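Reopening this ticket.

The earlier resolution said the output was attached, but the attachment link was broken on my side. Pasting everything inline this time so it's all in one place.
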Amino acid sequence: MTKVVIITGASGGLGRSVTHAFLETGTTVAGVSLDIDASITHPRFLAQAVDIGTWNATRTVVDGIAGRFGRIDVLAHLTGGFAGGASVAETDDDVWERMLTMNLRTAVHATRAVIPHMRKAGWGRILAIGSLAALEPAAGIGAYSASKAALVSLVRTIAKENKDSAITANAVLPGTMDTPANRAAMPNADPSKWIQPDRVAALLVWLASDAAAQVTGAVIPVYGADV
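Inline output:
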C-alpha cells in the first residue's frame, strides 16, 4: 500500500529536495506551506496552501488529507525560520514571538494533528528539521536557538509518549544548508562547506522507512565539513 507523507515547508530550499526524494520512493506526498510551490507537478503530489501557525487551519488540512487518502504515515516537518543579530537583552518581543511561532508552534500544531491518525493506524514516523544551534547556541541568535531547542524537546517527548504505537519521532539538526536563500543571504561565505539538501532528504527518507523502526527519540546532528 502506498504510504502518505505530509511535508510542511514543502516549498523551501530543503522542502523541494525532500518532496522529490519521497516521490521517488513511490509515496504520495501532501506538500503543506503558506505559499505552496505550484510548479511541483506530479500525479502523487497534492499541494495544500495553509498557515500551520494556526491550529484550526492545521487540523482541518491534516484531517482532510487523512480523509482523502485514508491514512497518514509520515510527517516531515520542515517549516521554520531564522532571525538574529541582537543579544537576548536587545531582542524585541516580536522576534521572540516570530521564532517561537515558526520553529515551535508550527511543529506543535502539525504533530498534534497527525498523531491521532497515526495512533489509530498503529504506525507512524514523525521527522522534524531543527538546527545545530539547538545544541550549540551562539551569541546574537538567542530566540532562534531557544526555539529550536524547544523543538528538540518536543520531538523527544513525542517519541516517549507514542512508543507503544509503533510511532517513531526523530529530529535532524543540520548546519548551514546550501540553499538559494542562504547563498543570497551570505554571498561572501564558502558554500562548499555547507550541507547539501539532498543528503538531508535521503536521511529523512531512511528515517521514515521500516529499516529505522528502532530509531526514535534521536537527535541527529549533520555537521558536514564543519565537524
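Reporter confirms the inline version is readable. The CA atoms of residues 183 and 191 lie 7 Å apart. The chain has one domain: 4-226.
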